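Incident log entry.

Two folding requests arrived from the same account within the same minute. Monitoring flagged them as a possible duplicate submission, but the sequences differ. Recording both here for audit purposes.

Request one:
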Amino acid sequence: LARAVSGSSGSERTVLNASGYVTARRAATVSSKVTGKVVEVLIEEGMAVKAGQVLARLDDTNVRANLEVARAQLESARMAVAETRAQLTQAEQEFRRTSELTKQNIASQSDLDRAEAEAKATEARLERQERDVTVAQRQVALWDQQLDDTIIRAPFAGVVTSKDSQP
């Protein structure tokens, strides 16, 4: 290292020569959370990187396929809920009609019990299917996270000192 300092008169110069070394304030070995085949490495030694910059990618073929299956299951669960809601509306209307007819002695108590049971069973099926939708949403979120885990990013801004992987 060399340093020059000018004095008060402006003509005086003192030069200081020193030797030393530079050490990083922070260092990190960057790796992925999951194991897999490296398909792309986007950095070279000595390259400056920004925080969050993509450094490498792993093969995500299977993860993408599982994500698509999870999304299809979510859509199917949502459609089942819509269908069951329509059936519940019909079952509740049938129960109300049968209740009125039973009050007028036109329908039997057995008919009323059957209509009530159908409405309650449909309501329970709807609750289960709504929980299935929640499970399917979480499954999609899980596969989204696993897809994101196939992308290796820089944890902070810095300089690449070693490149230990190849596609």
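Request two (distinct sequence, not a duplicate):
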Amino acid sequence: MLSIRARLINGAFRGMRRSGITRRMVEALGDPVALPVALRKLRRFDEPDPPKRVRRKRNHEVITLEGGPLHLITPSTGPQRRVLLYLHGGGYLIGPARMHWTSAAALVGEGAADLAMLIYPKSPEHDHRATIACAVDAYDVLARRYGAENIVVAGDSAGGGLSATLLTVLRDTDRAQPHAAVLISPWLDLSMSDPTAAAQEVTDHILTIEAAVRAGRLYAGDRDPSDPLISPRFATTSGLAPVHVFVGSEEIFLADCRAFVAKARANGDQATIRVLKKGQHVSAIFPTPEGRIARAQMVALIDWP
């Protein structure tokens, strides 16, 4: 049975759906005049700098990249030899939110590793080229400081898809893979072509297929949204770092997550998947008892060297 807090959060999302907020956002995604207005409202909730709770008793360094800032959070005693590169969600349109900061900080714990949060370029001002290039630049900076073997890449939703794309780009450009990757409700197919997603839409209180398809087109730019560089579900998965996927049983990304893990396993890579019972999109990072359990499982799977 879901915790009371999880049921309250799910109820809030159902209320947003019934109020028409979701429908208005879908409409804005297809209207170049309405979209900037809608995004300005949504981006008011972004936290591009680490909140005080995350900075407390920690050092904060901003590394300036061409695409955006990389925030490096280290213990007051000094940098650790390991680092978590976190790529936040938000449909490639918004973020990070406070929840991204706090959940990422929970994964590094008290001194287990440093935290690097990348504020990558967003759609529609930028498309996938700038976003992927920024993620690769951030990885290169961290690899020089820490060594690739001491990096764990993690991300949720769009950031989870970007994390998967990053692994394939690193492989294809002969860069070393990180120690592991944690993908939380990753958006792996921006074309939303799996027919079973429609059935999941009935139980998904947060996402809709139409909104995902429209946002995906903005990120893809002049490229086909089903291109493997855009949608890593269709990428070759051999030669990647160990991948650990967490996804909710109720969300529209479930089938893509299962297919991605199955293909990775078939190609000889280490891949695991945990399906959160009655879980909504990114419920693994919700401030709930279920979320805390999921994050503890992530830490155990990472198995820091």
